[in-house]
Amino acid sequence: MSDEVTVSCQCGAFQARLRGATAQNGNHGLCYCTDCQAFAHHLGQFGMATDAKGGTEIYQTQPARVEITTGKDQLAVLQLAPKGLYRWYAKCCNTPICNMVGNPKISFTGFLVANIATPEVLGPIRFRYKREHALAPVTEPSGSMLGFIARTVRAIAAERISGRWKQTPFFGEDGRAVVKPYVLSEAERDAAYLS
Q: In the prediction, which pLDDT does 2 show?
């Protein structure tokens, strides 16, 4: 089985490949946080990006494993607040793509599994984050947050030591995002969280 998966927006104008997409190379989980829910609401993609309980299934990996094959010009990024995560989406059809910190040295990104063609290669869901924010009770276990944190820190450190953190399609050599982030206004933010 190949360890390369295809990521695509809903209309197909944006496509990318994730290399090394295996259970060993990343974190596969569900995030129920209100920020992920607000992101989906703002883009009008709540049912597409979330499950019935408001959980967003994500696969966390390193940007150096990402190759955009089509539609780089369709990439857009927003922040729910001025210091919030960078939340990338395809502007052609408002498909949420991935989330990451706005600093390329923290080489870590979470892709929405809804956009991955062969999610079975990612292995089982290992963690469920912010279950208390779910829209209905989540009875499945949270999973090992300690294991999640350890894998994340280890991956970020490896990228820093090797210099691979510089190999990212999301940031330029100057460390700035390839697209200027749009920060939601207070009214837009309120609407996204109240939806």
A: 60
